[in-house]
Specification:
Strand order of the largest sheet: 2-3-1-4-5
Radius of gyration: 16 Å
Number of strands: 5
Order of helices and strands: EHEHHEHEHHHE
Low-confidence stretches: 159-164
InterPro entries: P-loop_NTPase
Organism: bioreactor metagenome
CATH topology: Rossmann fold
Protein name: AAA domain-containing protein
Structural class: alpha/beta
Shape: globular
Oligomer: single chain
Mean pLDDT: 78
Strand content: 15-25%
Pfam families: AAA_33
Length: 180
């Protein structure tokens, strides 16, 4: 059986740190980190959306990774952790639909990062410095708004959204690793 876990949260929340710890502690767990792939192939992890589009390439690498995990999961249980920033719900749903299209028998789980605003902003600036024009507070508040909608959709999924292609949604406190 293949379980695909999408970790979702604002920039600076600690998704990658949590995903790496999870991958090390769980047997037969693989990690796909969008930022790591972008840096490996492009030398950076941010792009101008008007002039650059790395996402077709990233989706092809993710597709190959999922297909490898599907192959391995025929012999043993496997978990694939996908660390991929998704700012809007439609992006999360598109990614979850992509998982189910490639691996329809997989269990898909989305973990929503639960972290305080000040800690998230502090982590972002600690990692990125104060370079560029990105506002981590805007990102944080956007994420908080969209996950409230996502949780509502999950709670009403059986009635209103049976076509949504995820099996479970949960929250994870990235400071403690506590799942709820």
């Amino acid at each position: 059986m293949l379980k695909i876990v999408l970790i979702s949260g604002p920039r600076g929340a600690g998704k990658t740190t949590y995903a790496k710890k999870m991958a090390k502690s769980e047997p037969d767990t693989y990690l796909f980190c969008r930022d790591t792939i972008m840096i490996q192939y492009f030398g950076k992890n941010t792009f101008d959306p008007y002039t650059e589009n790395p996402f077709p390439f990233l989706r092809s690498v993710l597709k190959e990774t999922i297909e490898r995990c599907v192959s391995i999961s025929k012999r043993k249980d496997v978990t694939l952790i996908v660390d991929w920033f998704t700012g809007y719900n439609h992006q999360r749903f598109k990614l979850l639909d992509f998982f189910k299209k490639i691996a329809p028998e997989s269990e898909t789980v989305i973990l929503l990062a639960d972290i305080g605003h000040d800690e998230c902003v502090r982590r972002f600036y600690e990692r990125e410095g104060k370079k560029g024009g990105w506002n981590p507070s805007h990102d944080y508040h956007l994420y908080q708004e969209t996950i409230q909608d996502f949780e509502k959709i999950n709670s009403e999924r059986e009635i209103y959204h049976p076509w949504r292609s995820f099996d479970r949604v949960g929250k994870v406190c990235l400071d403690t690793g506590f799942l709820f």
